TrEMBL record:
Substrate binds at residues 92, 98, 131, 162. Signal peptide: none annotated. The active site is at 187 (proton acceptor). Catalyzes the reversible oxidation of malate to oxaloacetate. The lineage of its organism: Bacteria, Bacillati, Actinomycetota, Actinomycetes, Kineosporiales. It is an enzyme of class 1 (oxidoreductase). It catalyses: (S)-malate + NAD(+) = oxaloacetate + NADH + H(+). Residues 156-323 form the Lactate/malate dehydrogenase C-terminal domain. NAD(+) binds at residues 11-17, 105, 112, 129-131. It holds the Pfam family Ldh_1_C. This is Malate dehydrogenase. Its EC number is 1.1.1.37.
Length: 329
């Protein structure tokens, strides 16, 4: 049988982990023919709870799950991993300033970047879900000089999926009838969901909707604030949908985005679309066999330009803040 793919998940005892691990083990990430070995990283106090999750993984008797290893040492857990899903992060707690949050997460992603640099497999891909995702990915990337920069990405697929769902409702279609939606920029309230290049059954989505006020005042803010709306309704932050988006993003990265479509992924900017080089910025990308390419040549009008610049400016601020903390060079 084929060699198992080694997939690391950090924050494995958390909410997202509780959805994510079972979907990975069932084959949703790598397909029905690829066995998987899970490497689960947690902080020491959460290892007991993680053992309970592993008991449940055992009890599912997943045919594709070849092995599960857990621990609190990044170098041990990341040893030889082909894919690392960095989900664990320090949540913002009461009284915590933005700088404190960046510093706490900076420490986590500095250490994990260094550990991946040292022990991960040569073909490793790293997807960051833990927030602030773009800047956490930037910190990990900057601390892993031997891993090509293209191997790091931050998750904006949840925003992309939220956009598909909202647009489908408005247009009275199913999500599978929509293609080429784009999330630009930061996984934060400044993100910009662009339907001006999207297609609904081959027709321009903005023209189908034909309601600029809805796009500007309802659609874009609804997608951007969806996370807060979920917290308000559910009492805790989105977890199953975040896990599902993490799976979608990883699967498409490794196996390829659908023909005639693209996906949104926050990747290192090469300056495309006037975004400062080196930022982890969400772009429309086409993926093939673990590589990605930014879709080029899209026409950007003034409305889009202003929103793309605003989210880039926020990422520049975050980058400068972690630079000032000495977390990146
Ligand atoms: P959670 O708080 O339930 O779980 C996080 C887990 O990470 C905890 O079990 C914690 O012990 C662990 N952890 C903390 N520091 C760690 C470290 N250094 N190494 C390993 N594990 C560590 O949080 P939840 O709901 O699972 O969310 C995880 C992250 O994902 C949060 O940062 C959240 O904001 C983010 N998120 C991102 C989304 C996106 O679209 N990019 C969507 C939803 C959540």
């Amino acid at each position: 049988s084929p060699t198992p793919v080694k997939v690391a998940v950090t924050g494995a005892a958390g909410q997202i982990g509780y959805s994510l691990l079972f979907r990975i083990a069932s084959g949703a990430l790598l397909g029905p023919d690829t066995p998987v070995e899970l490497r689960l990283l947690e902080i020491t106090p959460a290892l007991g709870a993680l053992e309970g999750v592993v008991m449940e993984l055992d009890d599912c008797a997943f045919p594709l799950l070849s092995k599960v290893e857990i621990g609190d040492d990044a170098e041990t857990i990341f040893d030889g991993v082909n894919l690392a899903l960095l989900v664990g992060a320090r949540p913002r707690t009461k009284g915590m300033e933005r700088g404190d949050l960046l510093e706490a997460n900076g420490a986590i992603f500095t250490a994990q970047g260094k550990a991946l640099n040292k022990v991960a497999a040569d073909d490793v891909r790293i997807g960051v879900t833990g927030n602030p995702a773009n800047t956490n990915a930037l910190i990990a990337m900057s601390n892993a000089p031997d891993i090509p920069r293209e191997r790091f990405s931050a998750l904006t697929r949840l925003d992309h999926n939220r956009g598909l769902s909202q647009l489908a409702k408005k247009a009275g279609v199913t999500v599978s009838e929509i293609k080429k939606l784009t999330i630009w920029g930061n996984h934060s309230a400044t993100q910009y969901t662009d339907i001006f290049h999207a297609e609904i059954n081959g027709q321009n989505a903005a023209e189908v909707v034909n309601d600029q006020a809805w796009i500007a005042d309802t659609f874009i803010p609804t997608v951007a604030k969806r996370g807060a709306a979920i917290i308000e309704a559910r009492g805790s932050s989105s977890a199953a949908s975040a896990a599902s988006a993490t799976i979608d993003a990883g699967r498409d990265w490794l196996t390829g985005s659908p023909e005639g479509d693209w996906v949104s992924m926050a990747v290192v900017s090469d300056g495309s679309y006037g975004v400062p080089e080196g930022l982890i910025y969400s772009y429309p990308v086409i993926t093939r066999n673990g590589d990605w390419e930014i879709v080029q040549g899209l026409e950007i009008d003034d409305f889009s330009r202003a929103k793309m610049d605003a989210t880039a400016a926020e990422l520049v601020e975050e980058r400068d803040a972690v630079k000032a903390l000495g977390l990146i060079g």
